[in-house]
Amino acid sequence: MGSSDIAAELNAWLDENWSDELTVRQWWRLLAEAGWAFPTWPAGYGGRAESSAVALLVQDVLLRRQLIGPPHGIAVTMLAPTVLRHGTLEQKQNILPRIVRGELTSCQLFSEPGAGSDLAGLQTSARLMDGEWVVNGQKVWNSHAHDSDLGMLLARTNPTAPKHDGISFLLIPMVQAGVDVRPLRQMNDEVEFNEVFLTDAHVPRDNVLGEVDAGWRVTQTTLGSERSALPARALTPPAGERPGWLDRVACEVYRELQATGSKAKELYPRSGNAARRLAQQVGKWDDQVVRDRVMQLHVLSEANRALTRRLGVTRIAGAPSIVKLAAADLARNARDIDLDILGSAALLSGPDAALGGEIELMALSAHKVSIGGGTDQIQKNILSERVLGLPKEKRDRA
Ligand SMILES: Cc1cc2nc3c(=O)[nH]c(=O)nc-3n(C[C@H](O)[C@H](O)[C@H](O)COP(=O)(O)OP(=O)(O)OC[C@H]3O[C@@H](n4cnc5c(N)ncnc54)[C@H](O)[C@@H]3O)c2cc1C
Fold this sequence. Notes:
This protein has helices at 3-17, 24-33, 52-64, 74-86, 89-100, 215-228, 250-267, 272-281, 288-313, 319-342, 358-365, 376-387, and strands at residues 106-109, 125-129, 132-143, 150-156, 167-173, 179-184, 193-204, 208-209. A hairpin with a 2-residue loop joins strand 2 (125-129) and strand 3 (132-143). The protein has twelve helices and eight strands. The chain is globular and about 70 Å long. The protein is of the alpha+beta class. Among the domains are: 106-228, Butyryl-CoA Dehydrogenase, subunit A, domain 2 (Beta Barrel); 268-387, Up-down Bundle (Butyryl-CoA Dehydrogenase, subunit A, domain 3), CATH 1.20.140.10. The strands form two sheets. The protein has a four-stranded mixed beta sheet with strand order 1-4-5-8. The protein has a four-stranded antiparallel beta sheet with strand order 2-3-7-6, with no helix packed on it. The structure holds flavin-adenine dinucleotide. Flavin-adenine dinucleotide is lined by residues 107-111, 116-117, 141-143, 193, 368, 371-375, 377-378, 381.
């Protein structure tokens, strides 16, 4: 089916099914049942086994018609692809419908104080006792652990096996006495991630994705999905019961997000157009050097968009690492250009600063793109060793 046929089918479906009275919860259910929520996923799980190009088209139609997009977040971009690939039928049937309806949220409990780039060095342990896993250890930098229902937890289940072989991928209920989530305030003043202390925390015996002790392979799916995840294009509120959006009227939520959310949405990734608007706002658009640099950013951001689309439809070795490196490069370039346009005024925050302090926030935040999900250096190691076949760097064998 061609893209104009898909758009026509979707528009007809929207004409028939959209109503201004729908709540977010009802709207997300309808999108999922019709397979429009996540078109690349299998039919029956919120999708229709279509290409990434169709998924982007659906987002564009929703954006054009000013309708809320499907749920977005870690459960969608990381947990769902991992369950689709490694989950049992029972796990798929239990977890995926709750994700597509926006009723289940997730977080990634991978990094530890002594295990970031060297993730397989993790020490958190899980032991089977009286028919369930009992978990002890500490995790860190865990985005959205504070409002998550189900954590993707890496724990050592076999302490005597070589370090990559004794790890299991567990799904841990986050709301329980043994899970202590403590927020970390970042230098950009946001509180996006946390440290998580696990003290005799409980995980049901069957909440293992893949085989026991073989979680490393499962982890590669999660990390690959994280590195190549597409940002949501249509506006969408946070999923899950706790943030409180599910039972609100969807078109009112859209208007609210449009008023407040569009600013935040523009923050990542900044485009050439955003830099142009900034230059115009501060009276620097006639400066030839500024115009030249804004044009360069525009070219980089368009090339990035084309690369992401292309890698989304073709399976190329190392694609997630390439997409992630390109996104980090774009964030750094956008930061440098915006800072040069604003000069010392970029140091100001608060409502009186340019764009309400967004540039200062962006400048303090841009670096995180090159760290989260594995640093630039680690992506380059992956590409050089696994894709280009260059000699491996020396590592400690444990
Ligand atoms: C915004 C953000 C969100 C995050 N969210 C999560 C999350 O939800 N869940 C989670 O578990 N973690 C999360 N993290 C943590 C992230 O995965 C780690 O910070 C990252 O893997 C790096 O680990 P580290 O901080 O321990 O740095 P280290 O591993 O100590 O690295 C320090 C420096 O050494 C370099 N280095 C290390 N090893 C090598 C090597 N072999 N070759 C070349 N250079 C090397 C690194 O590139 C880096 O520059 C998040 C981080 C950020 C910034």
